[in-house]
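Bench log, entry 3. Co-assembly request; chain sequences pasted below exactly as received.
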Amino acid sequence: MDKLYAPTTIRKIKEEHNFRLSKSLGQNFLTDGNIVAHIVESCGAGEQDLVIEIGPGIGVLTAEAAQAAGKVVAVEIDKNLIPILKETLADYPNVTVVNQDILKTDVTRLIEEHRMIGDRPARGVKIIGNLPYYITTPIIMKLLEERVPCDSITIMLQKEVAERIEASPGSKTYGALSVAVQYYCEVTYVTTVPKEVFHPRPKVDSAVIRLDLRKQRPVDLIDEGLFFEVIKGGFGQRRKTLHNALTGVRGKTKEEIAAVLAAAGIESNRRAETLSIAEFAAIANTIAGE
Ligand code: SAM
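Structure output for the full assembly:
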């Protein structure tokens, strides 16, 4: 058989299994072996690691990961892909495919259930995936907010979203998503992936990023929920100055917000897109400490 990622293989599988690609499930399959290898290499999984894969498709990344890692658990929502995966991954006894929606999966429990590799607990847990683009952000935020016990998340996503995630204060793409992800992780932009290496071809280019979960938060917070309220408030009305955008957060009046900003040492005419994580934290801690 041709390589699993070869377009001819995808065509053959579609024919033999009478499988139809689902646009609404974001099924754009990878057809480039170098990119497949690059994603798995970048996640850094070794023989003693457990890999959790989101959306295996016909199993191109899964097969590659199975050769590098001790164990792979792949979560696929499309039941029509399950018999196909059984065939394509038949040579890899260290792979388990779970037919579930990742957004409804208790990933922490899944990891606990599969933590043993032979008679030893896995050394590390790496999450990988070529994400279905219609739910990229919900998947990332679910994993981070639930504090899923993993070391890193190496994913392919729309290039534009990758740029938003890694953006720094002051740049056009810096927003609530940048602050939220960078609060939980160190972000590495691995590579840009052209749309030509997918079947079918999506409209936009993609990128691979790696998120390394921080062992310690980059800022001390009195009230984490309030920190996220401040971020949401600040970016909710992007074009407004902080003074106006934050009015209403925790019921604060305009005058009270002015006092908070002064006490936090932040000029009230600045906009959220110029604030560092530490400055968002200073505002939240000032409100929380009042
Ligand atoms: N990993 C394969 C590859 O790189 O060729 C497929 C990637 S494709 C972009 C996304 C995959 O995620 C599809 O197989 C799709 O069926 C699956 N998927 C979509 N929504 C999902 C969900 N909510 N939970 C789990 N898998 C999902």
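The chain has a mean pLDDT of 96. The chain has two domains: 7-213, 224-288.
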